[in-house]
Design a protein that fits this description.
Arc Repressor Mutant, subunit A, DNA-binding, 6 strands, 2 domains, 5 helices, homodimer, Dna Ligase, domain 1, alpha+beta, 137 residues
DNA sequence: GGTATATTTGCAAATGATTCGCAAATTGCC
DNA sequence: GGCAATTTGCGAATCATTTGCAAATATACC
């Protein structure tokens, strides 16, 4: 494991939510180059040390988000108001996927699931004011 | 509904699988411009006449795929060998999403799920030859 | 039906995330 | 510690998608 890859992995591990490639690049400003971050993310995913999914968000557009694979495979909720992720805990799709594999004769090797909407915090604020506030920068 | 939007919608309705924006642009070559196709796709999604999701595929990279909303909300399997989609039928996540909403106090307004792996056809070919053949162009 | 106003379209260029080529630096191995 | 293999930095390229603006089309109104 090279220094750059270790730095990228620990950035992912230190985060409570998935990070976009560009945020990792930002966090590693001065540590390693943007191209290196992208290459390291590919390497980590290949090595099963990280997982990723592509998400569109009105604030950030289409970006790929990465999370360390230290914990069990899990899914996330994305708040459309504050643009943060909420951890939904370990994946609960095992049964559904096994059913689909059997029904349709497929071999499922990976899956992407995420939910989006309004998180509890933003919903609470919306109860008092007309609209949820925009996320802080 | 303008002519361009109708053309884009009928391209989606005529397709058995979700189409990437660029494939819609290709199908409507000479009918309307690429920028118009993108704008029409946004319009159709806003108007709830179409649904979309962003998918990464080794052959096509990151692209947004669109499907007409004529049928019930559904999910797809993406074959990593032939790069086609398999229709998995109507969404079965209702219960899971309701559980998560209750448990975590979230308001889920949309979700993205897709599975990927090897489809039945490609798996059958792989049984005879060493590797599944690449998709025809 | 004919015209004024609002919306949509085409075109070409911009944008933003991601990737690539290549020379220099780092790593893993003996 | 020295060398071949791999990785990194830098800058430029790529690709999907978006945008500005003038022309064309749609919709509202008379």
């Amino acid at each position: 494991m090279t220094r750059a890859r270790a730095a990228v992995l620990s950035a992912l591990e230190a985060s409570a939510e998935p990070l976009s490639a560009s945020r990792v690049v930002g966090k590693l400003e001065g540590v390693c180059d943007q191209a290196t971050v992208y290459r390291a993310l590919h390497y980590l995913e290949e090595a099963r040390l990280a997982e990723s999914f592509v998400l569109y968000c009105s604030q950030h557009g289409v970006e790929r988000y990465y999370a360390s694979s230290k914990a069990a495979h899990r899914h996330w909720f994305h708040c459309e108001s504050c643009h943060r992720f909420v951890d939904l805990g370990a994946c609960r799709l095992g049964g559904l996927i096994a059913d689909v594999e059997k029904e349709m004769g497929l071999r499922v090797s990976r899956h992407t699931l995420y939910l989006s909407g309004i998180c509890a915090d933003c919903a609470a604020h919306a109860d008092c004011s007309a609209h949820a506030v925009k996320a802080a920068p």
